[in-house]
Structure formats: structure tokens, C-alpha cells
């Protein structure tokens, strides 16, 4: 592992490794075929700093208004010692009234430096509760969990861990997107559940490291969201088994990063060569060439989760890759990698390969319909 760490350190350069959070871990499941991101995440490369240096930063994923709304909603749900939260949990989990204790670890400190301390408190509280089934503690607020990623421990901060409902622990995720008539934006629900899946895996890792049964951490996530257009919260249970399995596979893949490293040219590095003022001095063309030795797999969804999205999109556009048109079109045009190839098959200026005959006929038909509509408009 130390040789592997040395190689990852060389890939990153002397800058400190950038840690994961639940959002970056969740992103691993969204484009698992991307070797570029797998390598950079395993090495702890600061992808945002690279995108900024190359002049293609990703715009802020969330507006400040959305962030503020999210914080206000979370405060409302947790106010008065979690009174509203407990009411919701009694409904969805059937908590009896006497199980209503609430422990807030924010009192330990909320700065980054306090993460190891809050993690130690969380660990003690969780293990005490797991070993004392009669414990009355029900909710742990602002806990810090730890997960091993590519051999490195990273800290994660779930919204809440609900303790001991019939001996089973639950992760609670509080999100401010609305549920209208019982339905929410599927993409937002999927992102929230994937994030919560990282917490489930971390909590199971803690249990198993202490010889406890990881299955005592439920695969059901409790999602708390506003109901309709109000700020009144509602709770729903979401089965996260598929997300947990997908994220576990990706985490295992990160520890098998060796073959991806082997495929890079010797001495490849994404080092930004920071000067004493922490300003990058790496030649942009040289850095771009280094990036291009790690195969990317751009899809338009990258813009939602990866800091390198605008770098990779520009590269894919320059190369005329079908990928920039989205995964549906990429799947429909399976076997055709470039837009120019598809266009030439469509206007019959390129002879199709034997396995492209049907596809070429469909493209020619689409081209003829489009030409007819344009001429008759
Ligand atoms: S933006 Fe680039 S590095 Fe990130 S997942 Fe997409 S293709 Fe991979």
C-alpha cells in the first residue's frame, strides 16, 4: 500500500490531499467508467483548482439562496431539541414516546479542527448505544463518521443518525427540495439517497471494526423534506440498497487503482507547482497534456457533480465526441464515437461498416425527414 501511496502522492504533487465528502463519494457512482476522475480522487487531487488554473471552473452548483433555504429548513426540523424531528420519526419508525433523547455534538465544536474530536465522541456514543440496547438515546445530531477511501480515512457529516429502533440504526437526511403530492424530483432524491448511502457504509464500517453486526445499520434512509409549497417537513423511508451496493463497488475499485496508474506514462503528475504564495505555476498546456493521458468519459451529467466538467466538456467538443450529446444518444449510436462520423453516415458520404448498416439506414431516414421538413417549412 505504501508503494501505491507513493505513486498517488507523485500524481498529486506536494499539495495536501483533498479529502472526500459525501457529495464527492456519491459522485463516484454517477460516472464509474471515468478513469480520470478515479485516479484524481484516489490521489486526492484538487480538481477544482485544476479547472480554475485551466480557465474552466465549474459554476457554483447551488445558489446562495438555495443554500440559505436549505440551512433554514434544517434548523426548523432540528429546533427545540429535535422536537419536530422526533414527531416525524415516531410516525415513520413507530418510536414509542419514552425514546426521545437528543444529543447534539455541535457543542463539541463545529470547526474543521474539531472533526477528530467530534468523530471520537460520535464513535463512543454509537458504540455505547449499540452495546446497550436499553439505551434511551435516540438521536445523534451533527455526528462525524469516518470512512476508508483508497486506504485513507475521510470524515463525513450526516445530518442525523437515529439510534436504536428495535436495535437498528438509521441515517436521516434532511433536504430542502419540495415533495409535491408525494412526488419529488427523482434526480434530487437519487443524489440525497446516494449521499446517505456513504453514511450507511461508514457506520457499518465502524460496527464491523468493533466486531458488531453491520446489518444493524438499516439500508432504509429516512428522507425529510418540505411538504408541498410549505416549510412543514414530511418524512419518507427510501430503500438505499442499490445505491449502497453501487457505492461499495466504487470504493473497492478505488483501492484497486493500480492498473489505472500502470496505464499512465511514467512520471505523469497533476501537480500545479504552487509557489510560496500558493499560486499555481504549472504550464497550462503541459497540465492539459498530463490530464489527457488519463482517459475521461464525459457526459453532460458531469456538470452536476464533477469539478472538471468544463475542462472535459471542452476536450470532448474539440474531439467531436458523441459523448457531449448525452448518454441516450451515445447509446443509440453505439459503436459510433464521433459526431462527424454520424453526420457522414446520415448524408451517405461514408460507407457504413458491416455492423453499422442498420444504424446508417436509421440515420439516413432521420436526415431525409429533417431535410423534407426544412424544405417544406
Ligand atoms: S468531468 Fe471529466 S473527470 Fe469528471 S467525471 Fe466527467 S469525464 Fe470524468
Key descriptive features of the protein:
Secreted protein; binds iron/sulfur cluster; alpha/beta; six-stranded mixed beta sheet; two-stranded antiparallel ribbon; about 375 residues; 3 domains
Largest sheet: 6 strands, mixed
- Count of distinct structural domains: 3
Strand line-up across the major sheet: 1-2-5-6-7-8
Shape: globular
Oligomer type:
single chain
Low-confidence stretches: none
Q: Would you list the SSEs in sequence order as H and E?
A: HHHHHEHEEEEEHEEHHHHHHHH
Please state the CA-atom Rg, rounded to the nearest Å. 24 Å
Count of helical regions: 15
Terminal Cα separation, in Å? 65 Å
Query: What portion of residues is helical?
Result: 40-55%
Query: Average pLDDT, to the nearest integer?
Result: 85
The helix/strand class is alpha/beta
* Bound compounds: iron/sulfur cluster
The tally of beta strands, per DSSP, is 8
Give the amount of beta strand, in percent: 5-15%
Protein name: Secreted protein
Organism: Streptomyces silvensis
Amino acid at each position: 500500500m505504501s508503494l501505491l501511496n507513493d505513486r498517488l502522492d507523485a500524481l498529486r504533487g506536494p499539495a495536501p490531499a483533498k479529502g472526500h465528502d459525501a457529495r464527492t463519494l456519491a459522485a463516484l457512482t454517477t460516472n464509474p467508467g471515468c478513469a480520470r476522475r478515479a485516479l484524481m480522487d484516489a490521489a486526492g487531487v484538487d480538481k477544482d483548482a485544476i479547472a480554475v488554473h485551466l480557465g474552466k471552473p465549474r459554476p457554483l452548483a447551488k445558489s446562495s439562496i438555495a443554500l440559505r433555504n436549505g440551512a433554514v429548513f434544517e434548523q426548523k426540523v432540528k429546533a427545540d431539541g429535535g422536537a419536530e424531528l422526533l414527531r416525524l420519526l415516531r410516525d415513520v419508525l413507530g418510536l414509542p414516546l419514552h425514546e426521545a433523547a437528543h444529543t447534539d455534538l455541535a457543542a463539541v465544536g463545529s470547526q474543521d479542527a474539531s472533526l477528530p474530536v467530534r468523530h471520537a465522541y460520535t464513535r463512543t456514543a454509537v458504540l455505547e448505544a449499540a452495546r446497550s440496547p436499553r439505551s434511551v438515546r435516540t438521536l445523534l445530531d451533527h455526528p462525524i463518521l469516518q470512512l476508508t477511501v483508497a486506504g485513507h480515512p475521510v470524515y463525513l457529516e450526516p445530518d442525523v443518525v437515529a439510534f436504536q429502533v428495535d436495535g437498528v440504526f438509521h441515517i436521516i437526511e434532511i433536504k430542502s427540495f419540495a415533495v409535491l403530492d408525494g412526488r419529488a424530483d427523482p434526480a434530487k432524491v437519487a443524489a440525497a439517497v446516494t449521499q446517505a448511502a456513504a453514511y450507511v457504509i461508514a457506520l457499518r464500517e465502524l460496527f464491523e471494526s468493533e466486531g458488531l453486526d453491520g446489518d444493524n445499520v438499516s439500508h432504509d434512509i429516512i428522507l425529510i423534506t418540505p411538504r408541498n409549497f410549505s416549510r412543514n417537513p414530511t418524512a419518507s423511508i427510501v430503500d438505499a440498497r442499490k445505491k449502497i451496493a453501487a457505492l461499495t463497488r466504487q470504493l473497492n475499485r478505488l483501492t484497486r487503482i493500480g492498473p489505472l496508474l500502470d496505464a499512465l506514462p511514467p512520471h505523469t503528475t497533476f501537480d500545479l507547482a504552487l509557489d510560496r504564495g500558493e499560486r499555481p505555476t504549472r504550464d497550462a498546456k503541459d497540465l492539459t497534456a498530463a490530464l489527457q493521458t488519463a482517459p475521461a468519459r464525459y457526459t453532460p451529467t458531469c456538470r452536476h457533480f464533477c469539478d472538471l466538467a468544463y475542462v472535459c466538456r471542452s476536450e470532448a467538443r474539440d474531439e467531436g465526441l458523441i459523448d457531449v450529446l448525452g448518454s441516450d444518444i451515445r447509446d443509440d449510436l453505439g459503436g459510433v464515437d464521433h459526431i462527424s462520423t454520424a453526420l457522414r453516415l446520415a448524408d451517405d458520404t461514408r460507407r457504413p461498416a458491416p455492423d453499422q448498416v442498420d444504424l446508417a439506414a436509421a440515420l439516413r431516414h432521420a436526415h431525409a425527414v429533417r431535410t423534407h421538413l426544412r424544405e417544406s417549412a
